[in-house]
Amino acid sequence: MQKIAFLFISSLFIISCQKPEPVDLVVINANVYTVEDANPKAEAFAIKDGKFIGVGSSEEILNSYSSDTTIDADGKTIVPGLIDAHCHFYNLGMQLQKVDLVGTQSYDEVLERIIAFQKQKNVTFITGRGWDQNDWQVQEFPNKKRLDSLFPDTPVAVRRVDGHAMLANQKALDMAGITAETKVPGGEVILKDGELTGVLVDTPMGMVDAVVPKPTVKEQIQALKDAEKINFSYGLTTVDDAGLGPEVISIIDSLQKKEALKIRMYVMVSNVPEYVDLYLKNGVHKTDQLNVSSFKVYADGALGSRGAVLKAPYSDKEDHHGAMVIGVEEFKTLAKRLAGSPFQMNTHAIGDSANAVVMKTYYDVLQNKSDRRWRVEHAQVVAPEEFEALNNNLVMSVQPTHATSDMYWADERLGEKRIKGAYAYKQLLNKTGMLALGTDYPVEHVSPFYTFYAAVARKDLKQYPEGGFQKEDALSREETLKGMTIWAAYSNFEETEKGSITSGKFADFVILEDNIMEIEEDKIPNTKVKATYINGEQVYGN
User: In the Cβ-directed half-sphere of 388, how many Cα atoms lie within 13 Å?
Assistant: First the structure.
């Protein structure tokens, strides 16, 4: 017995004499939400070689680790680096070089902004994005006549906020070879009294895109850097860019290797035949910063431009069902091909008919294949029968601010019964066990705190409606934080390397000015980031 006591005391003496392990950074006195189920809260952590090496109380960390750099967080809330599971990172940066039409309240204001932009920039081809006829007093698609009179010799092509409709003037249409007789599968050339209105929905927009001057490499690099700066300011350390081609992906990889771009990116390759052939031949590309292991496919268009495919006609447009962007047989063929590869298939599906096609196809081609995590991007309107069939082999990637942006007119498109299956995030969560949350910016604002608020409160920034839009589909704060961290990481097959403050994972974290998990609900959108860290290196803040 004396021998055992001696050994125990000796062990304690040895432990007490051990020197703390040197590390690169120690953070103490923090309110840490680790997003780990077993240990959801902590006070401190240590970082070495870009990864968390210890997580616990301040006393535990200080006793075990030492560093020349120690941050006393003074009780501030810290969360894992935030992940936007569906956005258009590159397009956000490029948009800064184009006319911004977000928030325009009338077609007159659209024209005023285009005029002001051209006076300042004097470009050879005017492009831009952001108009939304649903925000105007007259909620109708615009007509190009006034645009033609203002810019008879300069081509103009400006996209709707969702990117699924475009207004082009006659000069741009002529360059693209579009006439009143043009018919393109997967979209529509809108006519009035047999004449071109200038509005194109989905596929025909590609004809105009083909004649728009391509950006220079310098412009592309600037766009990526501008987007990174904005994302870091909101605590985003990983972004899922929903659709890029090899050229931009190559630039991203090159910049990251030179440490000129530090944000982590999960990039979906756009569904262009030659892109699919190239990446299936070369295989998955994965580094600590870049993950290219999926394809982005469009099943249908958007609800706001009535391009989403519905099982029954639109409630506000008789005999109109929307249109599939990709043919059903073509979609099935592509799905079978990707099922035989290591790549994920991530499909944009808005309408209940499109969601039915996507989900059934996924089930069919993934039979006897486990853990493929094929994603349904948006899953915006889902019929009861599809809810019943859902399982956890599919990942629902949704954007909560779409619900609060669309709620003003979505019921007009869908009707009282069908709206109950729209933006139904809690129902989707209950069926699949997790949700990946994103913004779809620049369709919506970049801020993940707007996402958080929309998911929890189901209100817009005007705190409308008072009780929340279909509040039964609200998420809890814990579910929302997981959707922006560990569940988003899971949707990318990256949950073992990021998404929580856990020993062994990348040291990506965000210090917030307020406790987003406890502050008054209506204060959530105003949450500010004090500092953003990637690999334990500060990339934003004081």
Answer: 3
Task: Tell me how many domains the chain contains.
Answer: 3
Residue 66: per-residue pLDDT: 96
- The SS3 call for residue 354 is helix
Residues 235 and 167 in one domain: no
Which pLDDT value is given to residue 475?
98
Do 298 and 240 share a domain, yes or no?
A: yes
Q: Are residues 405 and 302 part of one domain?
A: yes
Cα 442 to Cα 92: distance, rounded to the nearest angstrom:
6
pTM above 0.85, yes or no: yes
Torsional class of 353: left (φ above 0), alpha (ψ -120 to 50), beta (otherwise): alpha
By C-alpha distance, which of 376, 388, 397, 459 is closest to 427?
388
User: 267 pairs with which residues across the strands?
Assistant: 241
Domain end call among 209, 224, 244: 209
The H or E element containing residue 171 is helix 170-176
Same domain, yes or no: 413 and 517: yes
Note down the domain range covering 244: 83-88+216-541
Question: How much is the pLDDT for 17?
Answer: 54
500 secondary structure, DSSP code = S
* Cβ-proximal residues to 198 (8 Å cutoff; 6+ apart), any chain: 142, 143, 144, 147, 148, 167, 168, 169, 170, 173
Nearest to 190 by CA among 175, 210, 209, 173: 173
Which of 10-24, 133-147, 191-205, 331-345 has the weakest average pLDDT?
A: 10-24
221 in the same domain as 198: no
pLDDT above 80: residue 542: no
Closest CA to 484 of 464, 508, 467: 508
> Do residue 290 and residue 327 come from a single domain?
yes
**pLDDT at residue 9 greater than cutoff 70:** no
With respect to residue 93, please indicate whether it lies within any of the assigned structural domains: no
Based on the number of CB atoms within 10 Å of its own CB, is 78 exposed (0-12), middle (13-18) or buried (19 or more)? buried
Strand-pair category, 187-192 with 165-168: unpaired
* Helix, strand, coil % in the chain, rounded to nearest 5: 35, 25, 40
Residue type at 278 in one-letter notation:
L
CB 374 within 8 A of CB 353: no
Domain co-membership, 289 together with 406: yes
Residues 275 and 302 grouped into a single domain: yes
